[in-house]
Each structure stands twice: as structure tokens, then as C-alpha cells.
Amino acid sequence: MADYLHKLRLRRRKRLAEQHAQSVGDQRVAVIGLGRFGSSLANELMRRGWDVLGIDTDARLVQRMSDGLTHSAVADCTDPEVLHQLGVHEFTSAVVGIGTDIEASILIASNLLEAEVPNIWAKAISRQHGQILERLGVHHVVLPEHEMGERVAHLVTGRMLDFIEFDDDYALVKTVAPDTATGVPLGQSQVRTKYGITVVGIKRPGEDFTYASAETVVQKGDVIVVTGKTHAVEAFAELS
Q1: What is the DSSP pairing of strand 51-56 with strand 71-74?
Q2: CATH of domain 1-142
Q3: Tens-digit pLDDT profile for the chain (240 aa)?
Q4: Is the Cβ–Cβ distance between 38 and 54 less than 8 Å?
Q5: RCK N-terminal domain spans which residues (predicted)?
Q6: Domains in the chain: boundaries
Q7: CA-CA distances (angstroms) from residue 163 to 103, 117, 190, 228?
Q8: The pLDDT value given to residue 166
Q9: C-alpha span between 169 and 191 (Å, rounded)
Q10: What's the predicted TM-score (pTM) here?
Q11: What pLDDT does residue 6 have?
Q12: Backbone torsions φ then ψ of 228, nearest 5 degrees
């Protein structure tokens, strides 16, 4: 039975992914929960030209956001019929921005999955909460407080100017170029062989960002963007 259910979930995910791929031009998103996370996300999506439907049970939050959104509604999306009435089942993307009410977060995510919304994002307030959402089948789970805490910790304790970590233990780091990477073409510096990282971009003072190649010569004071295993980019940044 477990194998059968697993196969059903895989088939459903594949079908939804195909539907999403066919509708990538659809720039509509429903943001459910207009607290700090949801409102910030909705505003940024609007700034980028998306059509945003903002939904919350708190009329004050909806009223505050209504002028800046394409559409807004005061509604309880734990009721699947409400989602249908709002037309959320026709959207290709939806975000569950509710964190503190875990029961509501899980119910809404389940309703969106039942409605077969192809691309569902959900905020989690703990790893356990995130694991529950993942087991339900939510496509993207984010832990904004946890991830931001890790990011700031890297910036405070290291010599990084910015840090982004990916799920598969890879990271992207912006840092001042250490002496070991300067003065010769990157292909000759052998930073990839020595440190297990790849320099993907360079920002020279007073100049625009450019992509790096094997012929690029990094100079002292340049800011570089490197990628690789998290421990490797951490160690490389400490050379600065």
C-alpha cells in the first residue's frame, strides 16, 4: 500500500510539473497570509509585475494591503470551498505565508494540493513543521527565520559579504578576493583544484559585474562570487 501511494504521489507531481511547465508565462500568484512574510513577498511580486491575489482572515491586514495588490480578499482558506470560490484552483502558483498557526498552514496546503495547484510554496516555522509540509507533497518549503539566522551567522563570523546555501550542501558566496586568487589568470591559479571552489563572477571597484572565465585575472581588492561545497567556500572566504 505504501509503495502504491508513493507511486501515486510521484505521478501527481509529474503531472503537475508538466502543467506548470506549460504555463510558465502565467504570472499570477495567490499569497495566503499577509503578515510580515506574506506582505513583503506580495509587495515584491507586485514590483516585479506579477498579478497578486492577497488573502487573509484579518480584515485590517487586507485593507492595509489592498491598494497595492491586484486583488485582495478577507477569507478563511482552511475551507476548500472558499479557495474554489476565489478561483485559486486556476492559479499556477500559490504561497502559504501562515507560520504561527500550524494547523491552518497544514490545512491550507492540503487544500491547495487537492486543488492541484502546480506550484505551491509554504512557510514553516520549524524543521518539524517543514517536514510535515514536505510529506504532504508541498513543492517548496521555506524556513525564513532559520535560513536568515544561518546566513547572518556566516556574515558575522566570517569574511563573507553575502552567503546563500542550497539544499544539496552547495553555497554561493560573495567575498573579497584572497591573495591566492589574484595576479594570474584563474585557469593558472588552480583555485578549483586547491580549494574545491569555482569563481563565477567578479566585481571590480567602479566597474560592472562580469562573469569569470579561465582567462580572467583577479586583482587585489576585487569582489568575487564563488560557488562550491559549503565547507569549501567557507574555508576559501577565510583566506581573504
Answers
A1: parallel
A2: 3.40.50.720
A3: 445 444 445 455 445 444 444 445 578 999 999 999 999 999 999 998 999 999 999 999 999 999 999 999 999 999 999 999 999 999 999 999 997 899 999 999 999 999 999 999 999 999 899 999 999 999 999 988 877 777 777 777 778 899 888 867 889 999 999 998 999 999 998 899 999 999 999 999 889 999 999 999 999 999 999 999 999 999 999 887
A4: yes
A5: 26-148
A6: 1-142, 148-238
A7: 32, 31, 23, 12
A8: 81
A9: 19
A10: 0.69
A11: 45
A12: 160, -170
Three-state secondary structure readout of 16-79: HHHHHHHCCCCCEEEEECCCHHHHHHHHHHHHCCCEEEEEECCHHHHHHHHCCCCEEEECCCCC
> What type of residue is 3?
D
CATH for 148-238 is 3.30.70.1450
Residue type, 199: V
Nearest CA to 189 among 220, 216, 228? 216
| Cell reading at 63 | 485593507
Q: Which three-class secondary structure state does DSSP give residue 201?
A: strand
Bridging pattern class, strands 28-32 and 51-56: parallel
If you search the block for the grid coordinates 503578515, which residue do you land on?
35
**Assigned C-alpha cell, 109:** 496546503
Residues 184 and 219: beta-carbon distance below 8 Å: no
- How is residue 74 written as a grid cell? 478577507
Q: What residue type is assigned to position 101 of the chain?
A: D
